[in-house]
């Protein structure tokens, strides 16, 4: 009497659900927004910035998103997640080129030096995160020495970004 069915209940439960092209594009954009923890307006602004740069818009967009300070902190292994990295940046634990930066959306440039503030280095939180993330590979576009001082050595290329995002779908969505 009570059997588990592999389809949804109701009259239309066995209907075929095929996602539209728009739905696929929207899903890809939402996925990218959630990976980086952005809201719609901010993501749209990054897209506009990427569209104005020379080169492929989709790759430019991912490159811009990767160079956000909160993402750089996450990639370097100072935090276990991007959300945690965002909070650590907001609390002022990092400096860029010797100046305190507490804006997670700060875009780092080639040549910038990102390091943990002197007062924060002794915190158990950072020691634990760095030990736990010791096996995590630092991307090629970042360099980190044994004193936990990182330098941005290049713009992130598409090959360096390991997220399963199909950026061409995002570009198609915005170009409608």
Characterize the structure shown.
The protein has 176 residues and is α+β, with helices and mostly antiparallel strands. The chain is built from seven helices and five strands. A five-stranded antiparallel β-sheet has the order 2-1-3-5-4, with helices on one face. The model has no long low-confidence stretch (mean pLDDT 88).
Q: What distinguishing features does this structure have?
A:
41% helix; 5 strands; single chain; 176 residues; alpha+beta
Nutshell version of this structure?
With 176 residues, this protein is of the alpha+beta class.
* Shape summary: globular
Spans of 5+ residues with little confidence (pLDDT < 50)?
A: none
Helix content: 40-55%
The major beta sheet can be summarized as: 5 strands, antiparallel
**What gyration radius follows from the Cα positions, in whole Å?**
20 Å
Structural class: alpha+beta
DSSP summary: helix tally? 7
Q: Hey, roughly how much beta strand do the residues contain?
A: 5-15%
Beta-strand segment tally: 5
* End-to-end distance: 50 Å
* Strand order in space, largest sheet: 2-1-3-5-4
Mean pLDDT: 88
Order of helices and strands: HHHHHEEEHEEH
């Amino acid at each position: 009497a009570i059997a588990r069915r592999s389809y949804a209940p109701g009259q239309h439960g066995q209907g075929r659900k095929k996602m539209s092209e728009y739905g696929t594009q929207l899903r890809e954009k939402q996925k990218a927004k959630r990976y980086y923890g952005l809201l719609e307006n901010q993501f749209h602004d990054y897209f506009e910035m990427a569209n104005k740069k020379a080169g492929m818009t989709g790759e430019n967009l991912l490159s811009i998103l990767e160079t956000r300070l909160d993402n750089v902190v996450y990639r370097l292994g100072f935090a276990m997640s991007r959300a945690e990295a965002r909070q650590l940046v907001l609390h002022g634990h990092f400096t860029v080129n010797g100046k305190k930066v507490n804006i997670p959306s700060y875009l780092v440039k080639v040549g910038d030096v990102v390091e943990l503030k002197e007062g924060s280095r002794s915190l158990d939180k950072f020691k634990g995160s760095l030990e736990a993330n010791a096996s995590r590979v630092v991307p090629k576009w970042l360099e980190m020495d044994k004193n936990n001082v990182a330098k941005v050595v290049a713009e992130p290329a598409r090959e360096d970004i390991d997220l399963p995002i199909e950026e061409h779908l995002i570009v198609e969505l915005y170009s409608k």
